[in-house]
Amino acid sequence: MTEAPEEKEESLFEAPPMAEQERMCEAILFATAEPITIRELAARMPHGCDPAEALVYLRKRYEGRGVQVMKIGDAWAIRTAADLGFLMQKETVETRKLSRAAIETLAIIAYHQPVTRAEIEEIRGVSVSRGTVDQLLELEWIRFGRRKMTPGRPVTFVVTQTFLDHFGLENARDLPGLKELRAAGLLENRPPPGTLPGPESEDDEESTEGQSELFED
């Protein structure tokens, strides 16, 4: 008779069934616009829950559906299936202008990260203006990385989770090819960085000619 209350008290701290944990993760992901980490999920869920395991089941349950549970960097989100993105464009397309210099700089950072300003300039063959880098930082497509262990300890640049989220990528190793980048409006039908016909000035590249449209999801 004396043991019953103790058993009841212990049961209060038992984690909900895994199916219920799945539902909790699903609800949080649907209600959260930005990708959310395992730690953040655990902080919102009852004590003893295992959101990492719940996400494994939830991700499998959404396979082949119109929306998918995706890992983006070290966070998770529910996103439209990649092959159905075209259905959303009319409702969500927002035109933004990026100069040719910004487009090429972003592409170089994406494929060569972590990369310094000097390395970007060496690949492009022209100087990179501060305005170009500031524009990409403001859009949160790139961020500062670790300083290189070279003379002067120059700062490096890497792409952000926002960039990965835009393309539905888990990490930078899954970066799309040139065809996919052009289809998304990130690159135009130009020679890839490093193969441009002769040196140009940054001022020429900052003109409105050659600007590209970026589609934000």
Compute the number of strand runs. 8
The CATH architecture of the largest domain can be named as Orthogonal Bundle
Contiguous helical run count = 11
Give the CA-CA distance, first to last residue.
60 Å
Please identify the oligomeric state: single chain
Assign a percent range to the helix content.
Answer: 40-55%
Secondary structure blueprint with pairings:
Blueprint: H1 3-11, H2 18-31, E1 36-37, H3 38-44, H4 51-61, E2 67-72, E3 75-80, H5 89-92, E4 97-98, H6 100-112, E5 115-116, H7 117-124, H8 130-138, E6 142-144, E7 156-159, H9 161-167, H10 178-183, H11 202-205, E8 212-213
Helix pairs in contact: 2-4, 6-8
Written description of the protein model:
With 217 residues, this protein is an alpha+beta fold. It folds into 2 domains: 3-82, Winged helix-like DNA-binding domain superfamily/Winged helix DNA-binding domain (Arc Repressor Mutant, subunit A, Orthogonal Bundle); 92-213, Arc Repressor Mutant, subunit A, CATH 1.10.10. It is built from 11 helices and 8 strands. It has helices at residues 3-11, 18-31, 38-44, 51-61, 89-92, 100-112, 117-124, 130-138, 161-167, 178-183, 202-205; strands at residues 36-37, 67-72, 75-80, 97-98, 115-116, 142-144, 156-159, 212-213. A 3-stranded antiparallel β-sheet has the order 1-3-2. Strands 5-7-6 form a 3-stranded antiparallel β-sheet. The protein is elongated, with a radius of gyration of 23 Å.
